[in-house]
């Protein structure tokens, strides 16, 4: 039974994508695959298990994780910019530490 596995793979150049392609070309059960460098997305189809594909792609040396929801189609780009994350208020200032009384007593003894 053919399965589709979608992974997020950290690829910064064509060489990175080539490393992923090499390990998938040699993987047993793979019928087809697509490497999208811009989306950092790898889609594998074939008689494979998600864990086996994950392990094989990880051998390329690239940081690999499962694509959230294993979407078969790329999510549409948002039409508006996302709101910036809320910025936490600055922490309370830390009072200066009191001089070490034991060290001062030892110095005067």
TrEMBL record:
PROSITE patterns: HMA_2. Residues 59-109 are annotated as: Disordered. InterPro entries: HMA_dom. CDD domains: HMA. It holds the Pfam family HMA. One of its GO terms (molecular function) is metal ion binding. Keywords: Metal-binding. Residues 85-109 have a biased composition (Low complexity). The keyword Metal-binding applies. Residues 2-65 form the HMA domain. PANTHER family: COPPER TRANSPORT PROTEIN ATOX1-RELATED, COPPER TRANSPORT PROTEIN ATX1. This is HMA domain-containing protein. It comes from Zingiber officinale (Ginger).
């Amino acid at each position: 039974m053919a399965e589709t596995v979608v992974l997020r793979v950290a690829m910064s150049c064509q060489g990175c994508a080539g490393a992923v392609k090499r390990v998938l070309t040699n993987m047993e059960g793979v019928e087809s695959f697509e490497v999208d460098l811009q989306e950092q997305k790898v889609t594998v189809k074939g008689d494979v298990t998600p864990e086996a594909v994950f392990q094989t792609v990880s051998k390329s040396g690239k940081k690999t994780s499962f694509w959230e929801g294993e979407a078969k189609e790329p999510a549409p780009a948002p039409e508006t910019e996302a709101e910036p994350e809320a910025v936490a208020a600055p922490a309370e200032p830390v009072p200066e530490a009191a001089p070490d009384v034991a060290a001062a007593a030892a110095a005067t003894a």
